[in-house]
Design brief:
The structure is a single chain. The protein has 88 residues and is of the alpha+beta class. The chain has two helices and four strands; from the N terminus they run ββαββα. The protein has a four-stranded antiparallel beta sheet, covered by helices on one side. α1 packs across α2. 18% of the residues are buried.
């Protein structure tokens, strides 16, 4: 499973993107469960965020959903944080 997160917005307006491929990872099932939950909580169009807040595009195996601060589900927040931290 390929999980990609793109972050835009924020105070400085600097975008960031990272991707994780779960193939062959010992924790693949954990990633996949988290990604499925984050997709289920996402929106099909870009939601309105708050001034200087971040907006996110979450893509899992070609399926894309959108989310924005401060209205992230716990699963979205965890997935976004992990992908941006551990992804390439």
């Amino acid at each position: 499973m390929r999980i990609r997160v793109s972050r835009t917005g924020g105070f400085a307006g600097i975008g960031r993107q990272a991707e994780v491929d779960t193939s062959g990872r010992p924790d693949a099932r954990e990633w996949e469960t988290l990604a499925e939950q984050a997709l289920a909580d996402g929106q099909r169009s870009r939601p309105l965020g708050v001034p200087d807040g971040f907006s996110y595009e979450i893509t899992v195996d070609g399926k894309t959903v959108y989310a924005a601060d401060p209205r992230l589900s716990p699963e979205q927040r965890k997935l976004i944080s992990r992908v941006l931290k551990e992804g390439a």
